[in-house]
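To illustrate the input format used throughout this study, we show a single complete record. The first block contains the structure-token representation of the backbone; no residue identities are included at this stage. The design step must infer an amino acid for every position from geometry alone.
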């Protein structure tokens, strides 16, 4: 068999067997009291995996720059109406899904020392909140090795 045909046959066999399947998806996940959560989204496969889990959650937080770029490395704290912390997660994002009971919550999200504070009302369906930070020159600067 010609080498090019063998290569095509090998690729077809690997694809059929699932060896060329989607990359391994690793999401952050945990439980804080009665609140379960899952986060990630730094790769397309993670965004797709999170999309399939939205139905089981009541709050979706999406962290971005105002320019639209996704933002990871965010510290999040969610407090209930009485001020009790019901969810606290460091170095998360750009998407965080949480299963909160219906009620009013205060979301604090901090990226590089800059805080976004938001009151949200969670009901029976999925509530999506976009927390956006203004971009700085640092957000778009080339690393020293690329200059």
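Output of the design step:
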């Amino acid at each position: 068999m010609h080498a090019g045909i063998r290569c095509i046959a090998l690729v077809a066999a690997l694809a059929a067997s699932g060896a060329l399947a989607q990359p391994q998806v690793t999401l952050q996940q945990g439980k804080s009291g009665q609140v379960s959560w899952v986060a990630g989204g730094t790769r397309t496969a993670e965004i797709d995996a999170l999309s399939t889990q939205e139905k089981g959650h009541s709050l979706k937080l999406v962290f971005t720059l105002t320019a639209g770029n996704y933002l990871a490395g965010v510290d999040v704290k969610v407090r209930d109406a009485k001020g009790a912390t019901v969810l606290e997660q460091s170095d998360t994002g750009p998407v965080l899904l949480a299963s909160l009971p219906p009620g009013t919550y205060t979301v604090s999200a901090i990226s590089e020392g800059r805080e976004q504070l938001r009151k949200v009302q969670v009901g029976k369906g999925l509530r999506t909140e976009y927390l956006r930070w203004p971009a700085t020159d640092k957000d778009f600067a080339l690393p020293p090795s690329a200059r």
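Structural context for interpreting the output: Confidence is low (pLDDT under 50) at residues 1-20. The radius of gyration is 20 Å.
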